[in-house]
């Protein structure tokens, strides 16, 4: 799903399934209006960016030491569910954190999931995605 066709209604349910409206959850983080307060909040905003096709947020929220030069998103892939399984660190007072999650997608008639343990760190005072191990 690309950014132009994505529903960014601030009153709509946030794609990260936090239970909060988009305008109170990931919306302000994607818009650059506020920084994610925790590693989990950044991970949720990155899932939402994948769901909405927001390549810019994905690149900006990636640590500069591990960020790719470019990022191609599969426009046929629809990310529809996120299950956060555990967090380790990543609080507003930490400098590092880990979030383990499963993200579910559809591509045409194919259904699949991605299970990852992601590492996050603070860079210039903001949480950024460092890297992850897919299992």
Automatic annotation (TrEMBL):
Pfam families per UniProt: SEC-C, YchJ_M-like
Domain of life: Bacteria
SUPFAM superfamilies found in the cross-reference section: NTF2-like (SSF54427)
Occurrences of domain YchJ-like middle NTF2-like (ranges): 38-132
Family named by the database record: Belongs to the UPF0225 family.
Protein name in the entry: UPF0225 protein RD149_21940
């Amino acid at each position: 799903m690309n950014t132009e066709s994505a529903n960014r209604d601030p009153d709509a349910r946030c794609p990260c399934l936090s239970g909060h409206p988009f305008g109170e959850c990931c919306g302000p983080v994607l818009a650059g209006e506020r920084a994610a307060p925790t590693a989990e909040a950044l991970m949720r905003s990155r899932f939402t960016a994948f769901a909405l096709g927001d390549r810019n947020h994905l690149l900006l929220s990636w640590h500069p030491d591990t960020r790719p030069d470019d990022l191609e998103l599969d426009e046929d892939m629809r990310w529809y569910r996120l299950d956060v399984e555990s967090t380790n660190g990543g609080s507003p007072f930490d400098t590092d954190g880990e979030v383990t999650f499963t993200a579910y997608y559809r591509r045409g008639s194919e259904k699949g999931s991605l299970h990852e343990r992601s590492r996050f760190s603070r860079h210039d005072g903001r949480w950024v995605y460092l890297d992850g191990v897919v299992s």
